Amino acid sequence: MRMTKKICALLCAIGMMLGCASVAMPARQQVMAAADETLLSGNAVGGALFPAGTAAIHTGASYVWLKEGTYATDAQLIASDGDGAPDMTDGGNGPEEEFSSSTGDAAGTAAYGTLIYDLQTAYRVSSVKVWADTGNGSRMNQFEVYASLDGLTYNRIGAQENTRAAGQGFAPVTYAIKPTVYARYIKIIMHKDPLMPVMRLGEAAIFGEVLEPMALLSNNVLKASGEYNTTTPKIATGASYEWLTEVPFVTDSDIIKTDNDSKNDGAGGVPDLIDGSTTQTNADYIMTSVWGRKGNYAAVVFNLKDVYQIGKIDVWTGVATSGPLSMDGYEVLVSTDGVNYSSLGYTTNANKRSLNAIVNSPSYGVPGKHAKYVKIIMHNANDSQMLRIGEVAIWGWKLYDPTLPKKTTPDQVEFMTELKNYSTLYLDWSGYNGVVNNVNKYGIYIETAPFASTEGLTPKFTAEAKSIEQVGKYATYFALKPETTYYVAVTPFHSTGGERKDVETLKLTTPSVLGGERVGDIFAINDSPYGGGNYVHHGENEDVFLMTKLRLLRDLGGVNKNRWWDHSSAMKSLYGKSGVNFHYFYHGPGYVQSDNDGGAYTFSTYNEPDLANRNPSDVAAALKANHDSLKAVSSKSLLVEPALGGVDRLAAGKGLNWLDNLYNSDGQNGALVKNYFDVMDVHPYVKYEYPAVPGLIQGTPEKLPEMLQALKDTMVSHGDGDKPIIMTEIGWSTYTGGSYLKAVDRATQRNYLARAYLHAIANGIRTVHWYDFADDGTETNNLEHNLGLIDWNGKPKESYYGYYTLIRVIKDSKYLGQLSGVANPYYGYQFWDENKNRYITALWDASWQTSSSPTRKAHIETTDPGVDVVGIDGSYKFIPAVAGIVDVPLTGAPAFIYSTTGVNVSSIN
Known about the structure:
Pfam families: F5_F8_type_C, Glyco_hydro_cc. The chain is α+β, with helices and mostly antiparallel strands and 909 residues long.
């Protein structure tokens, strides 16, 4: 999410004060920048670190210490940044206190220093250096680097470990950014060694080179006057666009019909979206939806014909009080191959409707997120009668020049990686000049030992000529092992000279099977590729339906795992290429190795054994046997049990009573049984028979915290309180019944999905598989036929769009805790997202019902000039603060509030 108005508070100057403990330090060392580097960060030249003659650009750069979030700067570090020249750019180094800054003395604890540099304009950034003390109880473990073009949305570029030996004084640690990134803002997060008392920092410096001005990439017509006049820089990309007509984001037919090539300010045959008109005074130059299309979408994809770094995107749409009319916001996604897209976040339209005009709601690219294809999904406000669209202009920079002479020996391939989870790796080398290097295919090597040459190695896969991977210079690998260190390389194959085998590898370590470092590890699904149980087959269209599901799963952008019983290698490959792994039922050790090789490491024996009246002693014996045989194949695999069908004590021998009997079957209160499985698995459906939470109706997800606490209490009573918990099923059905689960309408199913996931996150649940992805049939009164996020025909329901939004809003964040100042029926949770550099606060009214309850307002205190709010209902809104207060409407649909400082709820009316 990128806020419409830049938050000045984040970038304002911080008052600096003298003062840190006096510690004996070694003499200062002189360390010069490399001769071929150009200094960008405004460090003083002419001193010990940067002698006279050091290559430097007078950018006017400045920095601030970040005081918010997961890696908020240690207070003493800020206080010790002197009131003279800022210590991190004064050109001096330790040991003198006037040239350095130090954290407080906190041995045994973590501490951080987080700097944000504003270079004032975008540069090609090639390296970052940090000088840190290596003696007298001081050590910096590592630093991370994030880059941004707008100061709002960042991308983690990488990290550098400090390998300096103790006693080297204030020694520099360098991170060479490969490939280089285009950025204006650089965030550096420095981590103190928790075993050391302090972290003393001397200097930080950023190096790079000048960029040419951004140019238009989207082939807009240049006119004599106006926003895009004839002096506007423009690259002759030959770009074109098309409106999307497939689910999930179907463009209104009238928008397509009114995109009239023959009437466009006299340009002659140019589509309206790029005809160069921003005043849009004539209806012939704009596109309009059907009247009454409240809350609908328009989605367009630009093909830029080659790969670029996106700098800025202009989106001109109409606002008016009559109607009213307003696009309330949009999402931008980028891709190099036209298949795998990465979201750049949401942008709100902060223009007042009273303007009654065509207005611009600009957004910005993200460093390292390159694009040949740019997808823009515009949302008509939920109270807007019509979506009116004018011009879209995409700006950016060339990544390379394909017209240079071709090389006989190709350059090494520099690439970026992103771990989606423990098993799925994305590789992107889209900035590589394959044309000039005369490359027709690439080898991808992933090894568990370092290597400098691929001689004697076999690539994990090859991006063959004209394949999607070769053309897009982007690939997915979905079979990594958890908690394993890998060394990765991409090699070029010259069209006539074979493979260049010498490589510089990138090192990465995968997280654990269940993850937990970020909120997004929780997202999972139940989707039987070919159905089962009450499933109604699609006949000859079954394969078409499967491919529709895979595309919609991929479009969700964050589902990690699917639960299924079969071990089909074909399904592993199909789902894996869509970024979705599997949780399997255990069918003996013969399948484990091949499942591990496909990236699957979680297995279950049973499904709801309590509801099936299975004997707990027999179940315990089976679990022990399966656990022993599973671990004999792979110690990393996890047995996930018992998929309990109820989390209650309403019936003897069911739910938690059955779980007691399972633990007690060893005669030792579970001392043995708890070792027979690795992960507790439950299906905490909020059943119709459960008593309601006070003040709420029956069946709401607000029952979950109480249910999960009862589960945890039961586990603790048997000495198993440290075991992780997952849910392999939970859901609400849009059926017309009501005997087992409360019947809900589609909007309520969406709201409950989001609230259930938020409660699960707050209660430490590691994975939640929504049940299920697709409706099993079309009978309106059949529970199983109405549990899906999409219907039997493959059309997304409101819950699909809610899951889509939920994933994008919080998947990269870390959970902070409950929001203070709210209590039942109001609920709120807070998160911090390092990439968004902001807090995200989820807030809703659980007593609100779709059609009967009034909307309340939460009065929220903030030091920001305003906040952006993303609704699970697809809405976007910028709410300005008045005297430090913003009023956020509350319904049963969670609202996500973006702010640079934490918010407090003062009251709810």
